[in-house]
C-alpha cells in the first residue's frame, strides 16, 4: 500500500464516483421543487467581508464566535469563507436592487460552505447546501410554501424518515416579554460563566444548548408559545393550517431556536433519526429584521438551507440506492487500428445523438476490452474487427443476455438509438 503524500484537509473529503454522481443528483433533487415553483437562481462569491457575517449571522452565535474561516488578504481586507448563504444572498439582493422590482423576490442557490467545526460524521469543515429565500413579504403562505417544497424534495429522493419541527419565535411584539421571562428563569439556575453571559446577551440561544444537564434544567422554562401576540399567533396558525392542507405533517417544538440570531416568527428544522447526533438535514425560518441589520430597507424574508451531505447520509441510512450513477448505454470495443478510428467516430456520433457511449482505448485486446465494457455499465457492446469493417458490419452484443447480432454500419447509430 502506498501512503499518499497529500490528503484532503481535516474535516473535508473528496467525492469520487459513484458518490460524486450521487451528490450531484441530491443537489439537483433538492433544487428541483424550487425550479418548478419559479424561483430564480443566484450565485454569490464564496467569501465575503467578515463584517457581513458578524452582523448578518449574529455576534453571539457559534458560527461567528467559533466557526468562521476568516483571514486578512494581502491587500488588508478582512474576509471570511461563507459559513452560510442567507446574509450573502440578502447582500446581493440589496446591492443589485432586486428589492426595488416586483416583490416578493424568490431565489435559490447551491454551493460550498465552510465552518471550522469539530469534524465528525455529518459535521464537516467544508459542506454543501441548497438554499432558498423569499424576500419582500410577511405572508405566512411563503413560510408554508418553503416548508412544503423542502418536504417534497426529500420525498422525491425517496426519504421517508424526515420529520418537520416547527415553532414561532414571535416578532418584536412578542419577543421582549418572552425574553424577559426566560431571562428571569435562567438567572435562577446555577450556570457556568459562559452560559450565564449568554443569558444576558441572547437568552434564547441557551435553549439551543445541547448538553443534557442544561436541557434538564430547562424543563420548566417558559415557552414562547405562551407569549405570542395575537398577530404572531394568527401568522403561526396560518402556516400550520396551510401545511396541514398540503398534507405535510409537523411537530410543534416550542424549544426550537436554532443557531442564527436574526430569526423572527416561523422557525423550522428538518430532522432525520438515522443520523445520530447530527440529525438536522435542513432548517430555516423567517428573518424580518435582517435587511435593516445590513443597512437595507425593511424587507421581510423567509428561507431555508438544506444540507446535501447529510441528505445523502440519510438516504444511505434508509438503505436507498445511491442516485445518479448511470454509466453509459453503449460501449465500443475496437480490435485493431483501423477499427479504433472507426469506433472513435461511432462513439462521437452516438454522443451527438444523445446516446451515452464510451470506448476501449489503448489497443486493448478483446478480453480486457470486454471487461471494460462490463464495468462501464453499458447494456450493449459494439465489437468491431478489421474483417467486420471490410464486410460493412459491426457486432452488437447484448451484455445482459450475451446475444450477438451483426448490424450494418450504415444504420448502426439509428439501430442503437432504438435499442437503448
Ligand atoms: P447543526 O445544529 O447540526 O450544527 P446548524 O443549525 O448549524 O446545524 P444551519 O446553519 O441551519 O445548520 O445549516 C443548514 C443545514 O446545513 C443543516 O441542517 C445541516 O444539514 C447542514 N450543515 C450545517 N453545518 C454543517 C456541517 N458542518 N457539515 C455538514 N452539514 C452541515
Ligand atoms: Mg451548527
From TrEMBL:
CDD domains: HisRS-like_core, HisRS_anticodon. Belongs to the class-II aminoacyl-tRNA synthetase family. Gene3D superfamilies: Anticodon-binding domain, Bira Bifunctional Protein, Domain 2. This is Histidine--tRNA ligase. It is an enzyme of class 6 (ligase). Its main location: cytoplasm. One of its GO terms (molecular function) is histidine-tRNA ligase activity. Residues 25-323 form the Aminoacyl-transfer RNA synthetases class-II family profile domain. Keywords: Aminoacyl-tRNA synthetase, ATP-binding, Cytoplasm, Ligase, Nucleotide-binding, Protein biosynthesis. It is found in: Cytoplasm. One of its GO terms (cellular component) is cytoplasm. Its EC number is 6.1.1.21. It catalyses: tRNA(His) + L-histidine + ATP = L-histidyl-tRNA(His) + AMP + diphosphate + H(+). Homodimer. One of its GO terms (biological process) is histidyl-tRNA aminoacylation. Pfam families: HGTP_anticodon, tRNA-synt_His. InterPro entries: aa-tRNA-synth_II, aa-tRNA-synth_II/BPL/LPL, Anticodon-bd, Anticodon-bd_dom_sf, His-tRNA-ligase, HisRS-like_core, HisRS/HisZ, HisRS_anticodon. L-histidine binds at residues 84-86, 115, 129, 133, 258, 262-263. PROSITE patterns: AA_TRNA_LIGASE_II.
Amino acid at each position: 500500500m502506498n501512503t499518499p503524500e497529500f490528503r484532503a484537509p481535516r474535516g473535508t473529503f473528496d467525492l469520487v464516483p459513484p458518490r460524486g454522481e450521487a451528490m450531484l443528483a441530491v443537489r439537483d433533487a433538492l433544487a428541483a421543487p424550487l425550479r418548478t415553483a419559479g424561483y430564480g437562481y443566484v450565485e454569490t462569491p464564496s467569501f465575503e467581508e467578515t463584517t457581513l457575517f458578524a452582523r448578518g449571522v449574529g455576534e453571539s452565535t457559534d458560527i461567528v464566535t467559533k466557526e468562521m474561516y476568516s483571514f486578512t488578504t494581502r491587500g488588508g481586507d478582512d474576509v471570511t469563507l461563507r459559513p452560510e448563504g442567507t446574509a450573502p444572498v440578502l447582500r446581493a439582493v440589496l446591492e443589485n436592487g432586486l428589492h426595488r422590482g416586483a416583490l416578493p423576490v424568490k431565489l435559490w442557490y447551491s454551493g460550498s460552505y465552510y465552518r471550522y467545526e469539530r469534524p465528525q460524521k455529518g459535521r464537516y469543515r467544508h459542506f454543501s447546501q441548497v438554499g432558498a429565500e423569499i424576500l419582500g413579504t410577511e405572508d405566512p403562505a411563503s413560510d408554508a410554501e418553503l416548508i412544503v417544497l423542502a418536504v417534497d424534495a426529500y420525498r422525491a429522493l425517496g426519504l421517508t424518515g424526515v420529520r418537520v419541527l416547527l415553532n414561532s419565535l414571535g416578532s418584536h411584539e412578542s419577543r421582549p416579554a418572552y425574553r424577559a421571562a426566560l431571562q428571569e428563569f435562567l438567572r435562577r439556575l446555577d450556570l457556568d460563566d459562559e452560559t450565564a453571559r449568554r443569558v444576558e446577551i441572547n437568552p434564547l440561544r441557551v435553549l439551543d444548548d445541547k448538553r443534557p444537564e442544561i436541557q434538564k434544567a430547562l424543563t420548566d422554562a417558559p415557552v414562547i408559545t405562551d407569549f405570542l401576540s395575537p398577530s404572531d399567533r394568527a401568522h403561526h396558525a396560518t402556516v400550520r393550517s396551510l401545511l396541514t392542507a398540503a398534507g405535510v405533517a409537523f411537530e410543534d417544538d416550542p424549544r426550537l431556536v436554532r443557531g442564527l440570531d436574526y430569526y423572527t416568527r416561523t422557525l423550522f428544522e428538518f430532522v432525520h433519526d438515522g443520523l445520530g447526533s447530527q440529525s438536522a438535514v435542513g432548517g430555516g425560518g423567517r428573518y424580518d429584521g435582517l435587511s435593516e441589520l445590513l443597512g437595507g430597507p425593511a424587507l421581510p424574508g423567509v428561507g431555508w438551507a438544506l444540507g446535501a451531505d447529510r441528505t445523502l447520509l440519510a438516504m444511505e441510512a434508509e438503505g436507498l440506492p445511491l442516485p445518479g450513477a448511470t454509466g453509459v448505454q453503449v460501449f465500443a470495443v475496437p480490435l485493431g487500428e483501423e477499427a479504433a478510428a472507426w469506433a472513435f467516430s461511432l462513439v462521437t456520433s452516438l454522443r451527438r445523438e444523445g446516446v451515452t457511449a464510451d470506448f476501449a482505448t489503448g489497443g486493448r485486446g478483446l478480453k480486457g476490452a470486454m471487461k471494460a465494457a462490463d464495468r462501464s455499465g453499458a447494456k450493449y457492446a459494439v465489437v468491431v474487427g478489421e474483417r467486420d469493417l471490410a464486410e460493412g458490419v459491426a457486432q452488437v452484443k447484448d451484455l445482459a443476455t450475451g446475444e450477438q447480432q451483426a448490424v450494418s454500419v450504415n444504420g448502426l447509430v439509428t439501430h442503437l438509438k432504438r435499442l437503448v
